[in-house]
Design goal:
By secondary structure, this protein is mostly helical. The chain contains 14 helices and 4 strands. The protein has a domain of 231 residues.
Length: 359
Amino acid sequence: MHSYIDYIVAFILSFAVAVLITPLVKKLAIKIGATDQPNKRKIHKDIMPRLGGLAIFIGVIAGFLYLKPHSMYMTEVVIGAVIIIIVGILDDRFTLPAKYKFLGQLVAAIVVASSGLLISKITVPFFGSVQLDYFSYPVTVIWIVAITNAINLIDGLDGLAAGVSSIAMTSILIMAIADSQIVVIALCTILIGSSLGFLVHNFYPAKIFMGDTGALFLGYSISIISMLGLFKNITLFSFIIPVIVLAVPIFDTIFAIIRRLLNKRNIAAPDKLHLHYCLVDLGFSHRSAVLVIYFFSACFGLSAIIFSNATLWLSLLILVILLIAIQFIAEIVGLIGMNRKPLINTFKRIMGMKPQKDN
């Protein structure tokens, strides 16, 4: 049983290691050619070192060795993390085809599912707990792969993925503390510490990108801690809580998939129509766009915390308020960018379709 002092030390250790090791990782990235070349789809104008996720991983290892969190699933979780890191490093150096990255994520997810760490049930209001039985395995694999890619897809602006991930993990940490989930508390503490340590070098203007090494690792880690914590929650809406926590990356990913299908493009094909790019196009500065998305993420995280301890009717009220807030934000953003028919034009913009002109 760890004391609060142990968690504080682990946080500081992970943070400090990430801060100190990142410049060395930057030199390594440049030396081996793990760099990001500018092109018309990207905002940065100069060649940038990536591979920064390796610094996050090393920071996490330092905190992990200090706390030594124990779980019956930990061996497979660590193996899965190593697989993800290897895939990320190879992609940052050689730019792997999407199918090979997906295969690596699939293998990591299957390794975790084989440990018995599964999304075995969901709690539905008026119906109670619904056991997934044999569907637990495919649902678990899909969840891990989906969240891993969701964080990867929002990694488009300096400091965005690290910041959004830290906010999501802080929300999970608060709920884990309330439920005394020791393993989740430990993992969140060291992951947040390392992510913030890397953010010192990655916030705008970034000196290094986390690359797929970092984005895939953070996405994988969040998928795991949400399974260890949020899906084990016995609240009325346990299946909705992790979705609310990760609302920004999840819905950005869903819109990206729908957009590409509507435009008859490969769903893995990159584009410049993600939420963060749209905010920049609407006139927000690079830093402001990141801070706006931080704010959205924090609001969703706070809502999830309240949601997890609410009664049925209060939960429904919060859900309605969230939906109204999302529509209100869409109206304002659309009004700023298109002046008229804001909601339909904002939706069309996100979908990559031509906005409706004024009469």
